[in-house]
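Revision sheet: C-alpha cells.
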Amino acid sequence: MSRDLTRLLCPQSVAVVGGGGWCEQALRQLRRLGFEGEVWRVHPDPTPVEGVPAVPSVRDLPAAPDATFIGVNRHATVEVVAELSQRGAGGAVCFASGFSEAQGEDAAAAALQTALTNAAGTMPILGPNCYGFVNALDGALLWPDQHGCARVERGVAVLTQSSNIAINLTMQRRGLPMAYVVTCGNMAQMRQAQIAEALLDDPRVTVIGLHIEGFRDVAEWVALASKAYERGVPLVALKVGVTEQAQRTTISHTASLAGSDAGAEALLNRLGIVRVHDLPSFLETLKLLHCAGRLASNALSCVSCSGGEASLAADMAATFDLRLPPLTEGQSAALERVLGPMVALSNPLDYHTYIWGDAAKMAAAWRPMAARHIGLLLLVIDYPHTDASEWASATQAAIAVHRESRRPVAVVATLPELMPEAVAAELMAAGVIPLCGLREALAAAEAAARPAAPPPPPPLPPIPDVETRMIDEAAAKTLLSAHGLSTPPHVVLADAAAEAASDLTAPLVLKGLGLAHKSDAGAVRLGLTQGALAAAADAIGAEAYLVEEMVEGAVAELLVSVSRDPAHGAVLTLGAGGVLTELWQDTTSLLLPVTKEDVRPALARLRIFPLLAGYRGQPPADMDAIVAAVMALQDCVIAQGDAIREVEINPLICTPTRAVAVDALMLVARDSQPEET
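Predicted:
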C-alpha cells in the first residue's frame, strides 16, 4: 500500500505524546530548529514544558496533528497510534522498542508489532524503535535528542536503520548540507525504500544516502531505483552485513534479513545504487554528488605543492577504479609557461612552492589541469589550525579555477581535520567541493564516476528457505546438459567395471558419487586407463561411480554457480575455480536474469581474466563458449522454477575451443522433482 508521507515529513502541526526527558528534548529541538507551526502536547500533567501546555488525551487535541512523536511504552504506543489514526492524523514516530527486533527475548513481540500496524491502518508510521526525522529544509522535526543539523535550502537526504548512526551523521563538520535525516527503526510499516521514494518527490533533495542493514522487499528497491533514475537523483548505499558476525548483529538489531553480501552487492550494482564501505566515504560521496553530480569520467587530475603528496595520491588512486592520465601536449605547454623549466610536469603535479601565495599564478598553473577530458580536478591543500590566513590565496585560486573552467574542482585536505569549517563553507558557496581526507576523496570520486543507467528488468524474486536435498553429479549434469551446457561423455557404474566404460576414450576420470567435495574426500582419480578403473574404484569404496572422459588443454578453470538468496534473489557467481577456489577468493556476482552483455564485463573483472584472455602468448579461452555455458546454467535455473536452490559448476574447464562442466553440485527443494525440458 502506498502512503503519503507529506504531512508527516513536512508538518504544519506537531504533537508530542508522553513525558520525561526524551519528549522534552523533542519539544526543545523543534524550537531550536525554528519550527513555525502549531505544537501540542498530550500528557496527564497540564504543566507547560518548553512553554507548551498539555491535554490529557489525543481526543482532546484541537485538531488532528500532521506529525506526532509517541514517547510512551510499547503497549501504550499501540493505543495512541489507534487514536491518531481514527482522528485522521498525518503520521507518527514510534520511539518505543520491544517489538519485532526483540523476538528472541519476548515471545509476544511479533504479535505486538502486528497490533501496531493494524492500529495505524493507512496512517504512516516510522519505527518502532527509532528516533524519527529532521527536516532541515522546513525547520520541522520529531527528534528526541541533540542533532547537528542546520537550516538549508537544498541538500542531501540520509536514511538509516540505526538511530545512533543517524545522530552521529548529523554531527558531521564537513560542510555537507543535510536536508533530511530519517531513521527507520525496525520498519513495522514504512520501509526504507518506500521512505526514500517519498523523498524523491521533494525537488530540494539532491542525493539520497542509505545506511542499509538488510533488504526486505526487492520490488520496492527496484521501484526506488527506477524513480531515482527518472528524477536524476543519485542513490548512495552504505550496506553493512559483510561478515557473518555483522549479519547476526543485523538480524538481532532490526529483524531485517541481511542475506549474503554477494547478493547485496549484486543487487545494488543491478539497481545502479553506488556502494561505499565506511561512514567518512559515505559523507564525502554524498557531498561530491551534491556539488557536482555524477562525474563525466573516472579520469582525475591531482595538484599539490609536495612531491610526497603527489606520490601518495598516485599510490592511493591505484587502489581505486580511477585514472590519472598523462598530460596532453596542450596541458604541458600551458603549465610550462607558468611554472618554467624547473618543475617536472606530470599528473599528479607537484608545482613546488615558487608561486605559493600568488592567487593569480596559482590559478593559472592549476587551470590547465581542469581540462575537458578530466572528470575531477583534485587540489590538495591542507589548512593549518594555527594560522591559516596565508592559505586564503589558495582558496581564492581554487574558486577562480572552477569559475573560469566550469569544470568540477575539489579542494582536498589529506587529513579531515585540516579542512576548516569556514573554508569548507566558503568553497561550497562558490561551487568548489571541499573533501575531507585523501582516501575518502578518492573513494568518493570512484563512486561519483559510475555512470547512471536505467535499471534493467527486475531480478528473479527471492524465495523462502526450505529443506533441500542433493542430487548426484550424474543427474545434475544430465539436467544441465538438457539446457545446452557442455559436459564430458560419461557412464554411471555400480562397480566401475572396465567393460561397462568401453565406449569412453581414455584418459578417464573416476569419481565416487554422493559426495559434495569429492577431491577433499579422495574420491576422484584422474588420468586412468580402462584397465585401471576397477582398482581405483576399490580404493575409493563408494556405492556408485561416475566415469568420464578427461577434459584436457585447459587455459583456466572457472567456478560458475547460482544460489537462491532469500533476501536478494538468484545470485550468479563467477570466479576462479578448481581446488584453489577458496584460496583465490576471486569472484564477482550478478543477479539473474543476465544477458550475454552482462556476463562478458563481469568475467573481465576477475583477477584470473588475463589467463582467459591469453597470458604471455598462451592461447585464449573460447569466451563465446564460456558465456554460452553461463547462459545455459541460467536457462536451467529459470526453467526449473523454485526447484533448484543452489547449483555449482566447479570447475568449468575453459580451453581454446570449448567450456566444459566437469563437476556439478546441485541442491534442490526436498519435495521437488526437477525435470529435463
